[in-house]
User: Fold this.
Amino acid sequence: MLQQKIKQLQRDIFDYNIGTVPAQLSNLMTTIIETSAFDLSDIDKVQRFNHIMQACLEALQKQDYLLLADITQFELENFLDLSNREDNI
Assistant:
């Protein structure tokens, strides 16, 4: 589910369907937290997630959608270790 949400966000960016991006990003971040996609008791992981989330929000605020796509692909997917998960949450 997370992998699909990330890929849809990236597709919308590359298709320049920008109007949907803020809501998708918000929904994605909420889903990550609500599904406990990482150990919320691990302070280092929480801080890293906060850093990634802040970088995403800054890219969105600057309307740098390609940077946002890169952050979700190279930082968020790696952080969530989606490539090694069978269920992809």
About this structure: The chain has a mean pLDDT of 93. Helices lie at 2-14, 21-34, 43-61, 65-80. The first helix runs from residue 2 to 14.
